Amino acid sequence: MKKSLLALGALLALGAAPAAAQEAGFLGGIQIGKNADKYEVRLGGGAYDAGPFTPDSFSGGVINGEFLFPSFDFLQGIGSPRPYIGTDIAISDDPIHVLYAGLNWQAYLTQRFYLGFSLGGSLNTDSKRTNDEGDERDLGSNVLFHLQATAGVDITEKLGAEAFLNHISNANLGSSNDGLESAGVRLTWKF
Length: 191
Fold this sequence. Notes:
Blueprint: H1 2-22, E1 31-32, E2 40-48, E3 61-68, E4 82-91, E5 98-108, E6 113-124, E7 128-130, E8 136-138, E9 143-154, E10 159-169, E11 180-190
Antiparallel strand pairs: 1-5, 2-3, 2-11, 3-4, 4-5, 5-6, 6-9, 7-8, 9-10, 10-11
């Protein structure tokens, strides 16, 4: 399931590339802060504990949701990032649920195709979990850093789709840092 979700995300990004290449400004007019004045809702799903930086000893699905707010004027100097709050609700035998918040940047490579990055913190339901096979996941703390990478495309002015990768860890500041990741796809709605 993890490989198929990651492949689906890659196809979303690659499928948008030919259309993006035909638009004016491809790799010549990157626009940052395009949606700085908008609210946005993101909802989707994916694979729990799927990503390049964590062990895959835990598995299952994840329901992902986010709400982004308009950027504040004083953030213009750093690219007008939008504050966000989000959650990963794990559908697994041994779940760790996550509530996260921070700032989100988007860089439009064309009028419709963008790459995104988020930086913030998270609160997690557990810092340590053991699965049925005896594998232990030790995050080191219930309060951790949250990083997110996205690749998306605007289908219409308000509706879009994107692939996401969430990474939660303590950045090796604790005695243990197994980390936790989720990857998947979701729909977006701007208003």
